[in-house]
Amino acid sequence: MGNMPTVADIRSHDADDDPLTFLTAYDAPTAAALEAAGIDIILVGDSVGNTMLGYDSTLPVTVEEILSHTGAVTRATDESLVIADMPFMSYGADPDEAIETAGRMIKEAGAQAIKHESGPHTIELTERLVQNGIPVMAHLGLNPQSVNETGDLTRRATDAEEAEEILELAKAHEEAGAFALLLEHIPANVAKHIDEALSIPTIGIGAGPHVSGQGLIITDVLGVGDWVPPFAKQYADVQSEMEKGVEGFREEVQNGEFPANDHYVEEPIDGWD
Ligand SMILES: Nc1nc(=O)c2c([nH]1)NC[C@@H]1CN(c3ccc(C(=O)N[C@@H](CCC(=O)O)C(=O)O)cc3)CN21
Ligand SMILES: CC(C)C(=O)C(=O)O
Ligand SMILES: [Mg+2]
Predict the structure, then answer these.
(1) What is the mean pLDDT of the chain?
(2) Minimal CA–CA distance to 56: which of 128, 175, 144?
(3) Is the CB of 47 under 6 A from ligand 2?
(4) Which residues bind 3-methyl-2-oxobutanoate (predicted)?
(5) What is the distance between the alpha carbons of residues 209 and 70, in angstroms, rounded to a whole number?
(6) pTM of the model
C-alpha cells in the first residue's frame, strides 16, 4: 500500500495490492514507531483497557480515555490513518449520542475514522455516521465487548448458521457505507468467503491468510504483558528489555555507580562544600 494511506486508499485496496498492515497503539512513542515502520492503519483500541490500564477486560474503558489516547497517537503521527475504537456502551443504545461521541473522536482527538463492534443494531448507525462524514470500520466475528452476553472469547462462526449471520452483517455494513471490515477470531475459510463476497477490504485478526490485511495488538507483537491470545505472534521481547533497563538503574544506584560525574555538576558556592 505504501505509506500514509487515506480512508479512500484503504477502501479501494484490491487483491493485487500488498496485504494491509494494522496494529494498535495507545501512546505517542509507540505510534511514532508504527508510522516509522510503515504500518498502514493504527487503531486506538479499547484493548488499552487490558493491555495498558490494568483492567481484565475492555468493558470499563471510557470515551474520555479513548479520546485521550487517540490524541496522543494523532499528535505523534503526521499522516497515518488513525482509527478510534468506540468503547462499550458509547454507541449501541442512543444513536444521537453515538454520532456526537464519534464526532468527538474526529474533532477533539484527530482520528480519521471510528470502529465499532458491529451487529444488527449498528447498520443504521453506520449509515448515519457515514452521511455525517465519519468513516466507519465495522468489527465482526469475536466482539469482546459482548463477553458477558456470549460467556467467553472463543472463536466465532464455528457453524454454518453463525457464519451465515456474520456474512449477512458484513454485507449490510458494506451497504451502509463502512470503508473496511475487521474480522476477529473466525475460521480462515469463513473469512475467505466473506472477503470474496465484499468489495471493501477485510482486515483479519485471528482470521487466517485469505483477507485483505492482517492486524494484531501492539503489546502482543512487542511482547509486553503476560498473556497473548492464541492467534498472536510475538516479534520482540520488550517486557524483558524494560525489566533489564530498570534493573540496571537499581543496581547502579545501590552500588554507587549512578550518578557518575557526567550526570551532575558541582558549583563553587561559598559555604556549600
Ligand atoms: N492483548 C490483547 N490481545 C488481543 O488480541 C485482544 C485484547 N488484548 N483485548 C481485546 C480483545 C480480546 N481478544 C481475545 C481475548 C482472548 C482470546 C482467547 O484467549 N481465546 C481462547 C478462549 C478463551 C476463553 O475460553 O474465553 C481461544 O482459544 O479461543 C481471544 C481473543 C482479542 N483482543
Ligand atoms: C481486537 C482489536 C482489533 C480491537 O478492537 C482492540 O484492539 O480494541
Ligand atoms: Mg476493540
Answers:
(1) 97
(2) 144
(3) yes
(4) 46-47, 85, 115
(5) 29
(6) 0.97
The CB of 24 under 6 Å from ligand 2? The reply is yes
Residues less than 5 Å from ion ligand 3, measured at CB: 45-46, 85
pLDDT digits (tens, 9 = 90+) for 222-269: 999 988 999 999 999 999 999 999 999 999 999 999 999 999 999 999
* Predicted pLDDT of residue 2: 52
CATH T-level topology, domain 7-236: TIM Barrel (3.20.20)
Contact yes or no for 48/5 (Cβ under 8 A)? no
Which residue's C-alpha comes closest to atom 6 of ligand 2?
Answer: 45
Catalytically annotated residue among 184, 196, 243, 266: 184
The Cβ of residue 244 has, within 10 Å, a number of other Cβ atoms equal to: 11
Active-site residue flag, 241? no
Give the ipTM: 0.98
Residue 1 has pLDDT above 70, yes or no: no
| Spans of all domains in the chain | 7-236
Predicted local distance difference test score (pLDDT) of residue 16: 92
